[in-house]
């Protein structure tokens, strides 16, 4: 379903646009995603709407699922939010240790305390961090708008599955420009 409305109290939630995660993908894939997410963040800040920047710090305790693959030593700046997002003091930053931004982070409580009823979701990886966060947001009762051209995944088929099969069942989907147009019209 295309983007029909942006609630008066909508938060932008940006998933894992951080140095270590984005470095895993090809620059030609991630650069446009980062630029579009930065446009959304700028527009939300200009409307005094919340911007939530989420970054992952992998758990130091390996799980059985991790045993089949080597866990690399992470660079010291792995979790730093990308400078292109121009993080501001008023942004809410969330550190997560699992795929979804709602698990043991206080995000749901923060959103509710700030009257948020809808989130606009973007980031990486579409089929992991973004999709898990979307499922959690849906289960928590938030309306969701997906900025589909501000997402990327290392696995194109997984990205396409999320966009075509999962996200339309959880919320509305549209491009960054479509979201910005609806956001502009919501305050006109």
For the biggest sheet, the summary is: 6 strands, parallel
Return residue spans where pLDDT drops below 50 for at least 5 consecutive residues.
none
The rounded Rg comes to 16 Å
Class from secondary-structure proportions: alpha/beta
CATH topology: Rossmann fold
Name the CATH superfamily classification.
Answer: Isochorismatase-like
Helix/strand order:
EHHEEHEHEHEH
Number of domains: 1
Figure out the total of helices.
Answer: 6
Mean pLDDT: 93
CATH class: Alpha Beta
> If strands are numbered along the chain, what order do they take across the biggest sheet?
3-2-1-4-5-6
Q: Can you characterise this structure?
A:
The chain has one domain: Isochorismatase-like (Rossmann fold, 3-Layer(aba) Sandwich). It has a six-stranded parallel β-sheet. Helix content is 38%, strand content 20%. The protein is an alpha/beta fold. The chain is built from six helices and six strands, in the order E-H-H-E-E-H-E-H-E-H-E-H. Keywords: Hydrolase. Residues 10-177 form the Isochorismatase-like domain. GO terms for molecular function: hydrolase activity.
């Amino acid at each position: 379903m295309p983007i029909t409305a942006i609630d008066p109290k909508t938060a932008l939630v940006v998933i894992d646009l951080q140095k270590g995660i984005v470095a895993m993908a090809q620059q030609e894939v991630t650069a446009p995603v980062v630029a579009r997410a930065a446009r959304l963040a700028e527009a939300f800040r200009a409307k005094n709407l919340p911007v939530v920047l989420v970054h992952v710090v992998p758990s130091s305790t390996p799980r059985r699922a991790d045993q089949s693959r080597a866990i690399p030593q992470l660079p010291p700046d792995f979790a730093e939010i990308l400078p292109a997002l121009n993080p501001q003091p008023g942004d809410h930053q969330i550190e997560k240790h699992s795929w979804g931004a709602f698990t043991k982070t206080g995000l749901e409580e923060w959103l509710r305390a700030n009257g948020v009823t809808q989130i606009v979701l973007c980031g990486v990886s579409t089929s992991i961090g973004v999709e898990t966060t979307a499922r959690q947001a849906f289960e928590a009762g938030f309306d969701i708008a997906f900025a589909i051209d501000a997402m990327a995944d290392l696995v194109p088929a997984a990205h396409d599955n999320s966009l075509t099969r999962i996200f339309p069942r959880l919320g509305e989907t549209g491009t960054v420009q479509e979201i910005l147009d609806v956001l502009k019209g919501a305050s006109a």
